[in-house]
């Protein structure tokens, strides 16, 4: 992971050089093949995010919208970063009341099949639809 594609490219080349140096020092060959595209940093669309946050607030889902929190939107490694470089995008997370469990944990998977998770899915669909309407009407 890296903060942006430039940092990722720089780090990749440094790591490649380390492997090549190790191969040279030990008399081995090294072959590095990228098997998937690199994930770009996510670019949160401010207008979409503001519409989403306002709609979330109206249905009782207050979310942190500080700049340091990327507007409460996901910035993890995902191909959504590549999408966000081409079209306006957001990647909000809604709580399914799983804490202290978080994504990629067994307990989170169990929380994902609860009534609270079903409400989060319905709220998410509704909020995205409202956000799309607001964006279309205001642009």
From TrEMBL:
<protein>
    <submittedName>
        <fullName>Amidohydrolase</fullName>
    </submittedName>
</protein>
<dbReference type="InterPro" id="IPR052030">
    <property type="entry name" value="Peptidase_M20/M20A_hydrolases"/>
</dbReference>
<dbReference type="GO" id="GO:0046657">
    <property type="term" value="P:folic acid catabolic process"/>
</dbReference>
<dbReference type="GO" id="GO:0016805">
    <property type="term" value="F:dipeptidase activity"/>
</dbReference>
<dbReference type="GO" id="GO:0071713">
    <property type="term" value="F:para-aminobenzoyl-glutamate hydrolase activity"/>
</dbReference>
<dbReference type="GO" id="GO:0005737">
    <property type="term" value="C:cytoplasm"/>
</dbReference>
């Amino acid at each position: 992971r890296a903060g942006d594609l430039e940092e990722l490219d720089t780090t990749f080349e440094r790591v490649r050089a380390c492997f090549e140096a190790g191969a040279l020092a030990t008399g081995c060959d090294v072959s590095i093949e990228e098997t998937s595209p690199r994930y770009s940093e996510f670019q949160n669309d401010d207008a979409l995010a503001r519409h989403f946050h306002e709609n979330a607030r109206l249905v009782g889902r207050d979310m942190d919208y500080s700049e340091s929190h990327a507007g409460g939107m996901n910035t993890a490694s995902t191909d959504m970063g590549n999408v966000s470089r081409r079209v306006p995008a957001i990647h909000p997370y809604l709580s399914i009341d799983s804490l202290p469990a978080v994504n990629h944990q067994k307990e989170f998977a169990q929380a994902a099949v609860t009534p609270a998770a079903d409400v989060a899915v319905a709220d998410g669909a509704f909020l995205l639809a409202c956000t799309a309407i607001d964006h279309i009407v205001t642009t």
